[in-house]
């Protein structure tokens, strides 16, 4: 299977400079719940820069004298950013933290809590981004695309972080799953195999984006021929208002979280999707997860493989909320902030703003 480049919905081209550096890129976690103020665990609000979450956890765990696995965290954060996140450790080590000092880490706050923080215990993340070399006409284009994003949302591709510096971690992941590569470290194995799952999801999403673009220009019958789908497989798709077209058998979830259900009344569910009440999901292949039906399955099965890993459903389309912008004309800086649900990448917003090439 060859790699497909992510496809984006707008046929535009914006030129700007974005540096993934602590000066121009900030990420802050939004906790899933309020911390109780009592309990056997200590939650730290930590600011870090120029280091991975693993490196930050190692620095703190080594200082207090515990194993990294005794600490909790909600999500992994970008190395090349200023990130603010929440971690936990047993409260009995609180005094040892008083002497902790690190040039790349600052503990902003401490609070007691009843439970260890677990992966995924997030509502979402708040991003602050500075785009540079944005001149007048580009500023107007960014304003226009940002308005579209606010109204419509963006595709929920996995970001480059999942695929490594060269973008081919998924190759080793597939070799591991095929038994053609042996790696002892469990976390490394899981990361690489997860990269292959992400690769399959991204390829599926690109195929569905391609279909949605075709339906903007061609009839349902013509799009069926171009996509090599049976006659009437796309019935009821072109008339849908939203960009990302739903298919019979798509698996939807209430947004931003909720139960999974299959599309049966296409027009009705398309209206609910357009109103941001629900959103379609894509398959992360593996065991213990539900597959789509009907016409949706015809495309999904192209990117489904048997593997001895747990699978999941992931939102294919997400909403970008709390959008704020500020243009500093004398510096040609375009400052932007927004919130995304957990597990989503700021690069999806930036690539739509940039007009990343389709294909």
Describe the structure.
Helices cover 30% and strands 24% of the residues. The chain is α+β, with helices and mostly antiparallel strands and 359 residues long. The protein folds into 2 domains: 25-123, TruD, catalytic domain (Pseudouridine synthase), CATH 3.30.2350.20; 158-318, Pseudouridine synthase, CATH 3.30.2340. The strands form 3 sheets. Strands 1, 2, 3, 4, 5, 6, 13 and 14 form an 8-stranded mixed beta sheet that branches. Strands 9-8-10-11 form a 4-stranded antiparallel beta sheet. Helix 3 crosses helix 9 (346-354) and helix 4 crosses helix 5. 37% of the residues are buried. The model has no long low-confidence stretch (mean pLDDT 94). Its EC number is 5.4.99.27. Residues 153-318 form the TRUD domain. This is tRNA pseudouridine synthase D. The active site is at residue 78.
Q: What name is given to the CATH topology of the largest domain?
A: Pseudouridine synthase
Q: Given the helix and strand composition, which structural class is it?
A: alpha+beta
Mean pLDDT: 94
Q: Could you tell me the number of beta strands?
A: 14
Largest sheet: 8 strands, mixed
Contiguous runs where pLDDT drops below 50 for at least 5 residues? none
CATH architecture field of the largest domain = 2-Layer Sandwich
Strand residue content: 15-25%
**What does the overall shape look like?**
globular
Structural domains: how many: 2
Would you list the SSEs in sequence order as H and E?
EEHEEHEEHEHHHEEHEHEEEEH
GO biological process, one term: tRNA pseudouridine synthesis
EC number: 5.4.99.27
Enzyme class: isomerase
Family: Belongs to the pseudouridine synthase TruD family.
């Amino acid at each position: 299977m060859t790699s497909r480049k992510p496809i984006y919905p707008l046929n535009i081209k914006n030129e700007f400079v974005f540096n993934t550096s602590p000066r121009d890129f900030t990420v802050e976690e939004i906790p899933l719940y309020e911390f109780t103020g009592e309990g056997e665990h200590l939650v730290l609000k930590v600011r870090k820069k120029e280091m991975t979450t693993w490196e930050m956890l190692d620095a703190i765990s080594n200082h207090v004298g515990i194993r990294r696995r005794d600490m909790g965290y909600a999500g992994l954060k970008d190395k090349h950013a200023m990130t603010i996140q929440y971690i936990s450790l047993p409260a009995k080590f609180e005094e040892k933290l008083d002497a902790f000092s690190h040039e790349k880490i600052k503990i902003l706050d401490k609070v007691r809590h009843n439970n260890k923080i677990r992966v995924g215990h997030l509502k979402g993340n708040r991003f602050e981004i500075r785009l540079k070399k944005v001149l007048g006409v580009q500023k107007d284009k960014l304003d226009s695309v940002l308005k579209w994003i606010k109204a419509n949302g963006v595709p929920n591709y996995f970001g480059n972080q999942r695929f490594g510096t060269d973008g081919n971690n998924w190759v080793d992941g597939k070799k591991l799953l095929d038994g053609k590569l042996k790696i002892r470290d469990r976390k490394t194995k899981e990361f690489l195999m997860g990269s292959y799952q992400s690769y399959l999801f991204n390829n599926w999403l690109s195929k569905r984006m391609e279909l949605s673009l075709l339906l903007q220009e061609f009839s349902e019958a013509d799009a069926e021929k171009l996509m090599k789908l049976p006659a009437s497989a796309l019935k009821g798709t072109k008339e849908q208002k939203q960009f990302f077209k739903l298919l019979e058998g798509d698996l939807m979830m209430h947004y931003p979280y909720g139960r999974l259900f299959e599309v049966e009344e296409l027009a009705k569910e398309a209206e609910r999707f357009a109103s941001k009440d629900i959103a379609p999901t894509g398959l992360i292949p593996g065991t213990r997860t539900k597959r789509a039906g009907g016409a949706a399955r015809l495309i999904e099965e192209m990117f489904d493989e048997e593997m001895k890993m747990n699978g999941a459903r992931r939102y294919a389309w997400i909403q970008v909320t709390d959008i704020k912008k500020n243009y500093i004309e004398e510096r040609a800086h375009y400052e932007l902030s927004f919130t995304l649900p957990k597990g989503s990448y700021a690069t999806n917003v930036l690539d739509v703003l940039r007009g990343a090439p389709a294909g």
